[in-house]
Amino acid sequence: MNSQQSFLIDLVDIAKKNNHRYGVVLDGDARWQDTLLSSHLANTLQSTQLNEPTFFQLGGTKRTNCESVSFKQGKRFLGRECQRLICDFRDGFDANSFSSALGSLVGGGLLFILIAENEEQSIAQHWLKGCLSQLYLIDSGGGLPGLPSVIVDDALGDTPLSIPTPFRQQTEAIDMIKNVVFGHRKRPLVLTADRGRGKSSALGIAASQLMRERPLKIMVTAPNSQAVAPIFEHAFKGLPSSTFITKHHLQTSSSSLEFIAPDELLNRINECDVLFVDEAAAIPLPMLKRYVQRHHRIVFSTTVHGYEGSGRGFGLKFQAWLNEVRPGWKPFYLEQPIRWNVGDPLEKWLFDSFLLNVELEPIDVERSKRWIEEQSLEKMSWLHLDKAKLVGAKLVEAALSRHAVPEVDILNEQCHGINHPLRACFALLVNAHYQTTPNDLIQLLADDSIHLFGLFSGTDCIGCLLVVEEGNLSDDLIDDIQRGKRRPKGHLVPTTLANHLGATVAAKQKCLRVMRIAVHPELQGYGLGSFMLNKLEASTLDFDYLATSFGATQQLVSFWNQAGYEALHIGHQRDQASGCHSLLMVKPFGAATEVWYEKSHQRFIQNLSYLVSDSLSAMEVDLVLTLLPSLSIDSISSDEIHLLDCYISGGGSFDGIAVIASKFIIEMSLSHKDEISDLLILKVIQKHRWVQCCDMLDLSGRKQAERYVRDHLQLLLNLHCK
Questions:
Q1: Domains of the chain, start order
Q2: Can you say whether the dihedral through the CA atoms of 232, 237, 239, 242 is positive or negative?
Q3: What is the rounded CA–CA span in Å between residue 381 and residue 370?
Q4: Is the pLDDT of residue 418 over 60?
């Protein structure tokens, strides 16, 4: 025990010199683990003479001098600091909670992980055990690992490397934020950073300095109000005389800082001097573009790798668009951590373990394009990836492939390290989706109902699908779901259909839901996503219908429509993660499914025709336009065309033809969607007031707006009469 305590003392000493954090795994019986840990914590308190507890505990029985939460409540430690973090994996494990808690551990600190002895291992636990083996393992048998090296400055011999000032980059970021206000218009700033780099606090500090220097109205938006709490906290510290009007509205005598929801922001034009958009990658791209067009002084910030998730599609798509419309925009990447030194081994271990930092590997793009152009997609390998063998660094060909795939042997040989198929698939998912969280990987490995498919060009992974089996529910469970008594874990589509549309048969049947779909960015737009869906459909003979649910955007809805999926349910409120309305779409197989499917589709149409002017009245115009063709109606009559023509010529009133105009626009959306203007959608379909339409489209008043309505209806009428 003494040698083990000495090892921990030496490890702490090196951690402090490097300003790094290290992870220690205690492997042995519970009594030995608790004795060793308790002794180390007591020695630490005695040697440092700390007055406040600096030890956090995640899971397990509460220890003396430790602030303890359950293993699922790691988020409660966000924004706080500790010098020891104890994670009791014997009590349970939640990857998101663990990752969040790890952000509270400061440089010079240690992470202790307690694991159970001789536990029967699932696939997920086997993966996790392999990850834990990369940390410093102390076992009850007395074996000790080697110590890390002290980082030295080569120019000064054995002198420890001086720790860089952690706030230098943050100060630079604050100056750049202020320059958005003081400098030229139409030059947005885009701040990107990994978690723990002081991005949100930089926004808050900059806000407080700006509000002290001049009268200013600052608005901040984000996917949810919790995300901006650090901004207000740091702004208030810099403005002690300021007052909170509400929890997210800070005001001084001449300036204000106010949070506003992303969709509400679109209805409030020119009400601020500068706009902060935090966690911008989680807000739909069409919304971000409208912000840029309406606000000439704007700061975007987002997380690249985070303890709660990772996603990089934002950088590829949005910043490419900024190059075209705002060529003077400025990027700034915050690299220096605030709480620990660059190169922290524990941070790297975390990202490696949960595949949050996997990068897209170079692929032979020309070969894949050549096969696509030659219509030789059969040369590509469509594989059902066996999770057990993936974790063991092996790949198998599933029964879905009817013919021999020669590339499988090559993939088996090269699937170690960066070429591991699991890493390759996750690289695509992280790139394509905003939040790929630590729990996503664990859920994939632990849940037998989740399957991973990969599309390979040679040994290059160029696309993947993540699907989950759902449905096959009992009558009693379905009845409890419909009466609001139970909400079973999983089974998203069957429970939604049964609960909101009364589709009892759908919940009894077997559904295969597409959770994620991703194609390599250099091969998007070549039909590979549709190709993978067709391959999936050909292999799902045991299922009654395919389904998907996602944050709806015009582009995504159009993609799934083209694949034969129809919308059956839309969420009335925006999803916190995506900032979009969740849309459920289904593709049925067979007569038994068609019956409930047609009834559900008609019910969706009836609901949508009402909701677009009620709870969905703030929905993006392009999305409304994409959903319009589903609102099937009777053909417009000659009498109605005549009344419409009279109004266009200056007769009648808008109120007198509003219903006819709505019917006419829906009919024209089937063949002339691109010719329908935003104004017609806002006024006629979503039924906004004239003043709202004028504000949103920057029109002078009702007279100009109604003249445009007549002009736009005339254009459609000309097309209708051809």
A1: 2-148 (3.40.50.11040), 168-334 (3.40.50.300), 633-721 (no CATH)
A2: positive
A3: 15
A4: no
